[in-house]
Amino acid sequence: MTDLIPAQPGWYLQESDTDGTYLDPIIAWAPAVDSDGEGVLLPYVAGGPGMPPLLMTIDSFKHCFRNVVYQPDHKPDPIDLAAKAPADS
């Protein structure tokens, strides 16, 4: 397995749909190669309560209108953070 690179604060996966635009904190990066053989970093984001992190694929950026953005001053909504926190066992 490839070693993951921890993400620094301020990096987000931005996704837009008919309901709005959402920012999910990127928690790690996975080195990969695109279809042209160029090196890229793919982001991991939290998968939600009790779920493992999700690796975003290259294709998901095209099909799901995703972008990586750097917003160091963004303050996540505490309600959104609580919804993504693991449930207590």
Written description of the protein model:
By secondary structure, the chain is mainly beta. The protein contains two helices and six strands. The chain has helices at residues 58-63, 78-84, and strands spanning 5-6, 11-17, 20-33, 39-45, 54-55, 66-70. Strands 1, 2, 3, 4, 5 and 6 form a six-stranded antiparallel beta sheet that branches. The N and C termini lie far apart (29 Å). 8% of the residues are buried. The model has no long low-confidence stretch (mean pLDDT 85).
Give descriptors for this structure:
89 residues, mainly beta, 6-stranded antiparallel β-sheet, 2 helices, 6 strands, 15% helix
- Beta-strand content: 35-45%
- Give the rounded overall mean pLDDT: 85
Task: Count the DSSP helices.
Answer: 2
The number of E-state strands comes to: 6
Low-confidence stretches: none
CA radius of gyration: 14 Å
Q: Order of SSEs, N→C?
A: EEEEEHEH
Cα distance spanning the termini: 29 Å
Shape: globular
Helix content estimate: 10-25%
* Main sheet overview: 6 strands, antiparallel
> Which secondary-structure class do the elements indicate?
mainly beta
Task: Give me a quick take on this structure.
The protein has 89 residues and is mainly beta.
Topology readout:
Blueprint: E1 5-6, E2 11-17, E3 20-33, E4 39-45, E5 54-55, H1 58-63, E6 66-70, H2 78-84
Antiparallel strand pairs: 1-3, 2-3, 2-6, 3-4, 4-5
